[in-house]
Amino acid sequence: MLDPREADELPGDLDPALRDQIAHTTAAAIVHGARAAEDPEVVDRLIRLVETEGLDVVSGLWADSAPATLPGALWRLYVLREWVRRDPQTVALRYRLGVDAAPVQEVVAGVVSPPGPEDVRELADAVLSGVFAGDLAVALERAAAFCRILATGAAFDADAREAGDPDSALRMTRGASSLLRTAEELEHSAALWRADKLD
Length: 199
What we know:
Shape: globular
Protein name: DNA-directed RNA polymerase subunit beta
């Protein structure tokens, strides 16, 4: 039998409470630090955090955080931006398919119509910029509106593919459901930020 001191020295995962504390501390430091600095270079570096550090690093910090927390909201925004960065053609297509069915969301999201791949990239960057240099609640609501439009577009795309590729249509339908859930989580986070309860 190991004594307690030897057991504590065995390698293993971080204590979940410590992981949660690190997630909250880093998210708060990044957001509040960028806001205090008011430096466009700092904001630009933070927008490109995933590109420079890798999605795994950001995932290690925030992926396990609850949705209604600052690190959970940041994680969702970075994943959305990374998807837009990696596959802007698909995102632009889904946006075009969904925008007519969600005109109010289009106004909130703030994408030019009809959007091209570069336009959706610019929106993703603008949303993250708003997190660090603007109104965080507005940035979260813009991202939520964008997700709602993409969810609608994915659902329409799934319907169009149902007969020819039912497996792909099912994946798209599940993706649409996930996007809708993300939109709801981001909207809730925005409300919490306005109530000074998003930490």
